[in-house]
Amino acid sequence: MRQVERAIFDLRRGLPVLVRAAAGDLLVHPLEGCDDEALAALRTLSGSRPALALTRHRLARLGIEIGAPAARMPIDAADTAADVIARASAEYCKLPPTTRSAEADQATVSGLDLMRIGLLIPAAVVADVAAAQRARVETLVADGTILALAAEQIAAYAELRGHFLKRISEAEIPLSHAERARFVMFREADGMREHIAIVIGEPSEWNDAVPVRLHSACLTGDLFGSLRCDCGEQLRASVRTIDERGGGVLLYLAQEGRGIGLANKLRAYTLQDGGLDTLDADQVLGFGNDERTYGVALEMLEQLEISRIELLTNNPEKLAAMSQGSIEVINRRGVYGKLTQQNRRYLDAKAKRAGHWLEEVLDSEEDGGRIAPFKRPLAR
After folding, report:
1. Measured between alpha carbons, how far is 309 from 328 in angstroms, rounded to an integer?
2. List 35, 79, 290, 367, catalytic entry
3. What pLDDT band is residue 162 in, cutting at 50, 70 and 90?
4. What is the C-alpha separation between 261 and 216, in angstroms, rounded?
5. DSSP secondary structure letter of residue 66
6. How far, in Å, CA of 130 to CA of 53, rounded?
7. Which CATH number describes the domain made up of 2-160?
C-alpha cells in the first residue's frame, strides 16, 4: 500500500513512475506537468515511442468506440505536449487522419487507475521500456529517482483503499439546524481521505428505520453557497429533516464533484460555461457519469451499528449501493434545494440523463427547498 501512496504523491508532483506487469515495464507520466521537455525525456529514457493512454469515455468524445476500459494512441515525434494535452482533455480536438488506437494492456490500465485514485485527469503519457534501456531505468529505480510498483499492487489498492476505516476522533458540535449533533471522523486505511459521520440526536431515541443522508462533499456549494448546484441547500435541509424526525446520521463523504475531485470539477465547470452539461463535461475529461462508490458509507454505518435506514436521496445509485451491503432500506425520502437560473441545467441533466428523482423540484419553480413526502416505497 505504501508504494501506491508514494506513486500517487509523485504523479501529483508531475513525476513519472514505473509500472511493472507481466508484459513488461511501463513508464507512466501524468498529463499534469507534461511539457515538451518531459515528453522528450520520456522518449529518451524508455527508448520507445510514447503513447497517450485514454479512458473509453474520453475516446468516445473523440469518436472512437471501444469495448475495453482504455486504449493507447501513439504519439508522433512531431507532436508537442500541447497537442497531447488537447487530445486528452480539450472539448474540441480533431485527430490526425492516420490516428489509430490499440486496447490498453494491464500496465496502462493500472496507470490510469493511479490517476483516478490521485484525483488527476484520467489520462497519461506512457512508454514501454525497451530492452536497451532496462539497465538505465533499473539504475534510476535503485537510487530512488523513479518509483517502481507492480500492476497487481495498484489493483489491490484500488479494491481495498475504502475498506478498513479507522474511527479517529469525535466531538459534540451543536448545529443551527440540529443542536444535538456529534461529529465522528473516519480515516481510510491509506490516510489520504477522511469522512465525517454527523450523528444527530441520541441513538437510543432513534426510530427503528434511522434517517440517513449520504452527502458527497461540495466545497463550492456547501461552504460558499454556489448557485451552480443545490448541494448546500440539500445539506442543510437534510440536517434539519433528520433532527425533526428524531435524529439519525448524515455521512459527509470526501467525494467532491461526483468523485472526480475539486481540480477536475473546476475544469468541468469551465467546459460547462462553453455549453456542455455536467455529464458531458465530465466525459470530455475522461470520466464516467458518476465516479463515486459507497463502500465507505456502508462501513461507516456498520461501525455505527446501523442496519435499517430511511434514505434521504434523489439518486437511484445510492439506493442500489445500500442494497449491496447489509443495510436494509425501509423507505426513501427526496431532498431538494431551490431551483435557480444557474442550477436548472445541472438538475435537468441529472434527472434526464442520470435518472435522479427530481420531478418535484423541476416541475415547480416555486419549490423552496422543502423535503418531499414519502414517495416510491421500495418493493422488498
Report:
1. 6
2. 290
3. low
4. 11
5. -
6. 18
7. 3.90.870.10
Topology (CATH level 3) of domain 166-255+292-362: Rossmann fold (3.40.50)
Residue in this structure with the C-alpha cell 495498484, named with its chain if needed: 154
Reference 20, options 140, 123, 153; nearest CA is: 153
292 is annotated as an active-site residue:
yes
Annotated active-site residue in 87, 161, 193, 292: 292
How many angstroms separate the CA atoms of 196 and 48, rounded?
A: 46
Q: Which residue would you say has higher pLDDT here, 280 or 378?
A: 280
Question: Helix (H, G, I), strand (E, B), or coil: what is residue 194?
Answer: strand
- 54-79: buried (b, 16+ CB within 10 Å) or exposed (e) per residue? bbbbbbebbebebeeebbbbebeeeb
CA-CA-CA-CA dihedral for 84, 87, 89, 90, to nearest 10? 110
What type of residue is 210? V
- Burial class of residue 239, CB neighbours in 10 A (0-12, 13-18, 19+): buried
- The residues with which 128 forms a beta bridge, in sequence order, are 26
User: Is 290 annotated in the active site?
Assistant: yes
Instruction: Give the H or E element holding residue 148.
Output: strand 148-150
Are 183 and 170 contacting, i.e. CB atoms less than 8 angstroms apart?
yes
Q: How high is the mean pLDDT of the chain?
A: 92
51-55/123-128 β-pairing: antiparallel
| 74 beta partners | 51
Query: Cα(298)–Cα(195) distance, rounded to whole angstroms?
Result: 12
User: With contact defined as beta carbons under 8 Å apart, do 155 and 296 qualify?
Assistant: no
User: Which cell numbers in the block locate residue 197?
Assistant: 459521520
Confidence check: pLDDT of 374 > 50: no
C-alpha cell at 198: 454527523
Across 313-342, average pLDDT: 91
CA distance readout (Å), 96 to 79, 81, 84, 99: 11, 15, 12, 5
Q: CA dihedral defined by 68, 349, 258, 88, rounded to 10 degrees?
A: 50
83 contacts 115 by C-beta, under 8 angstroms:
no
| CA distance linking residue 330 with residue 210, whole number of Å | 9
Q: Where are the domains of the chain?
A: 2-160, 166-255+292-362
Q: In the predicted model, what is the mean pLDDT of residues 200-218? A: 96
What is the chain's length?
380
Reported for 267-270, long-range contacts at CB under 8 A and 24+ positions apart, including other chains, are 267/89, 267/121, 269/228
pLDDT at 365: 53
